[in-house]
Amino acid sequence: MSSSNAKIIAIIGSGLIGRSWAMVFVNGGYRVKIYDNQPGQSAKAVSEIRKELEKLDKAHMLRGTLNASQQLSLLSSFDDLPQALDRAFFIQECVFENLEVKQSIFQAAENLVGNDVILSSSTSCLVPSHVFSRVQNRSRCLVSHPVNPPYYVKLVELVPHPETAAAVMDATHALMTQVGQVPVCLKKELDGFALNRVQAAITAESWRLVQDGVISVKDIDLVMSEGLGMRYAFIGPMETMHLNAPE
Q1: Distance, C-alpha 242 to centroid of its chain
Q2: pTM higher than the cut 0.90
Q3: What are the backbone dihedrals phi and psi of residue 8, each rounded to the nearest 5 degrees, phi first?
Q4: How far apart are CA 132 and CA 99, in angstroms?
Q5: Is residue 149 reached through a cis peptide bond, with omega within 30 degrees of 0 on the bond before it?
Q6: pLDDT recorded at residue 241
Q7: Is 13 helix (H, G, I), strand (E, B) or coil?
Q8: Lowest mean pLDDT segment, chosen from 29-33, 209-213, 238-242
Q9: What does the DSSP 8-state code read for residue 99?
Q10: Bridge pairing between strands 182-185 and 88-93
Q11: What distance in Å separates the CA atoms of residue 57 and residue 203, rounded to the nearest whole number?
């Protein structure tokens, strides 16, 4: 896929998550337009991405089949939202976790793009029905929640709005898979999504064991890093149970 005919993805927000998403998408051969409402910030983000990609290329750790120069040629920066969204088929919002700001962004974006453009949020805690409450056509809206840092941790939680079309979930799943991420689909929205709820359960029980004098902070960390973590890095809890008790 050459830079002249590559499909376009627009990223709103040029912070750490926005830059990480940009690296993920260009490794898959997509043209990426990064927008930030602070003048000069999107250009600064491209410079930071250049340093990171060149470092990864030198260390032979660059993702994708394109070299660093080829991936960088797919990147562009914008201070103007209409220009950034022009001809994009997928929009990934990556601003800070402020509901009002996200709602305003998607309300503005909807008026600048066609009805077939997918609107995706990177939020880690806000449910889609709140994030997209000001969007008229909510069938093309969803949360694509990455795990930080997205370039190195590939899981992406796809969380639908109650009105999200199945085709939008399928298309986003295919996109994330194509760029090398590992998407999981939630069947409905709920606070915390899946990853954060599992993480919260582990953290709560770890604190409880420490507070009750059962184990030290150091040793509860070892329970995860040298025990469960080693196992769960390869197989999940359901598969573990299945293998422990075969029929």
Answers
A1: 30
A2: yes
A3: -105, 135
A4: 10
A5: yes
A6: 82
A7: coil
A8: 238-242
A9: H
A10: unpaired
A11: 36
Pair type for strands 141-146 and 155-160:
antiparallel
Say how far apart CA 20 and CA 146 lie, in whole Å. 10
What are 210-234's pLDDT values in tens digits? 999 999 999 999 999 999 999 888 8
Integer Cα distance of 102 and 131 in angstroms: 6
DSSP letters along 153-201, please? Answer: S-EEEEEE-TT--HHHHHHHHHHHHHTT-EEEE-SS--TTTTHHHHHHH
Q: Is the dihedral of CA 120, 125, 131, 133 positive or negative?
A: positive
pLDDT in tens, 167-203: 999 999 999 999 999 999 999 999 999 999 999 999 9
pLDDT given at position 1:
44
Count Cβ atoms below 10 Å from residue 238 Cβ, excluding itself: 8
Cβ atoms of 84 and 34 closer than 8 Å: yes
Q: Which residues contact 33 (CB under 8 A, 6 or more apart)?
A: 8, 9, 10, 11, 76, 77, 78, 83, 84, 85, 88
Q: Where are the alpha helices (DSSP H) in 28-127?
A: 41-58, 68-72, 81-85, 99-110
Nearest one of 54, 17, 80, 32 to 179, comparing CA atoms = 32
Please, what is the average pLDDT of the chain? 95
Closest by CA to 119, choosing from 102, 99, 97, is: 102
